[in-house]
Amino acid sequence: MSGRLLRWVGTGAAVGALLTTASPAYAVPEPSGPGERPVSELLTDLQELYRKAEESTETYNATAEKLKEQRAEVTRLNGSLARARTSVRDSRGAAGRFARQQYQGRTNISPYVHLLLARNPQQALDQGHVIGRVAAERAATVQRLVGGEKTAATLAAGARSALETQVALAARQKEARDTVKGQLKEVEELLASLSTEQLAELARAEEEGMAAAQRKFLASGALSGAAGSAGSAPSRPPSRRGDEALDYAVRQIGKPYKWGAEGPASFDCSGLTQQAWAAAGKEIPRTSQEQWAQLRRVSLRKLRPGDLVVYFPKATHVALYLGDGMVIQAPRPGTRIKVSPIAANPLLGAVRPDPKADPMKNYVPPKLPRGAMKGGDKGYGRAGAPRA
Question: Which parts of this chain are annotated as the region Disordered (predicted)?
C-alpha cells in the first residue's frame, strides 16, 4: 500500500482552501455510508499524528544525546575514581612503612642520624635539615592519604549519582521510543483503514495544497533578497562551510528516513542537518529544538544556501535551505531524503550555524540527482512501518 500513500501538506489552511474551491473533477464526495469521513478530516488527523510522532522523535533524540553524554561522564568519573583509589593505596603503603619504622625504633633515617653525633657543628646543622625534610615528607604523606580518601569518597558518590542518572535516562529513552512507535502505529492503522479512492483523494489534496501554500508564500515576498526567480541561481551565495554542508545533503538524496537515525545509511530530519554541518567541520546540536534554540537566528529575507529552516511552533522539524525557495529534507517515516518546497510545512524561522562566515565569491549551485523532487512527503503503510 505504500506506493499509494498520501503526501502530507504542512499547512491546514491551504488544504482547507483547496478542498472548498476544488474543481468538480477533484471534488470530495460527502460521506455516503457509516464510517466514511471527509478527506479534509482525514488529512487533518494524519497531519496531527505525524506532527506528534516527529515531536516525540525529537524528544527521543534529545534523551539519546543526554544518555550518550551521561555514559561518557560515568566513564570519566570511574577512571578518576580508579586513579584516586590507586593514589590512596600508595599513600597507605607509605604510611605503613613509616609506622613500621616507628615500631622498629627507626624514627630517624639511620645513616644521617648517626652523623649527628659528629663533633662538626656544620654537619649537625646539615643533618638537622635532612631530618626536617623527612618529617615534612611524612606529614605530606599523611596529608595525601587523608586528602586522597576524601577525593575517592567524593568521586565514588559522584559515580553512583551519575550511574543512577544514566539508568533514569535509559528508562526515559525507552519510554520515548515506545511513544514514537505507538504514534506511528496509529498512523499505519488509519492509513490501512482507507479505501483506494480515499488515498487518491488525500494524495491529490496534499499535492495541490502544498503547491498552493508555496505559491502564497513566495508571493508574500518573504524570501525577497534570499533567492532569485525559480530555476535561477541564488542571489545570496552560501559560506564555504554552508556549501560543503549542502553538498553533503545533496549526496544523501534518496536515502530513507528513519526516526532516531543520524546516518550514514538513513536519517531523520535533524540527523541529516547535524551530519551535513559536521561534514563541513561545524558541530551543531542533535535535535531541531536545540538547533533552533542555540544557533543564530536569521531573517528569511537573508536566507542563504546551507542555512537551516525550522518548522512548527515547537521547532520539531528542520531542513537545509537549497535556494530558489526549496529545501533538502528528510520528511517523515516512509519517505526518502528529497528536495521540497520551503512551504511544505508551517515555517517557524531559520538559523545559521556559521553567522560570522563570509559568503563565497564564486558559488556554483550543486547539481541535483535525477528524481530529487520525486516522491513527495509520503507516509508509509504496513510494509514501511519502523521496526526499531
Answer: 353-388
Residue 200: inside a domain, yes or no?
Answer: no
Contacts 24+ apart (CB under 8 A), 265-269: 267/330, 267/337, 268/57, 268/61, 268/330, 269/54, 269/317, 269/318, 269/319, 269/329, 269/330, 269/331
* Any domain includes 11: no
CA gap 341, 131 in Å, rounded: 83
Q: Are residues 241 and 179 in the same domain?
A: no
- Answer whether residue 61 is part of any domain: yes
Strand partners, 347: 311
Lowest mean pLDDT among 57-61, 156-160, 274-278, 280-284: 156-160
Q: What angle, rounded to 10 degrees, do the helices at 39-103 and 121-192 form?
A: 160
Number of domains in the chain: 2
- Structural domain range at position 178: 43-188
Q: Are residues 283 and 175 in the same domain?
A: no
Does residue 122 share a domain with residue 67? yes
Q: What is the pTM of this model?
A: 0.61
Same domain, 167 and 272: no
Q: What are φ and ψ of residue 138, in 5° steps?
A: -60, -45
Report how far residue 282's alpha carbon sits from residue 280's, in angstroms, rounded to the nearest whole number: 6
pLDDT exceeds 80 at position 187? no
pLDDT tens profile 86-114: 776 766 665 566 556 555 555 444 444 44
| pLDDT at residue 36 in the model | 66
Give me the CATH number covering residue 320.
3.90.1720.10
User: HSE on the CB side for 262, CA within 13 Å?
Assistant: 21
Which whole number is the average pLDDT over 72-88?
74
β-strand pairing of 347-352 with 308-311: antiparallel
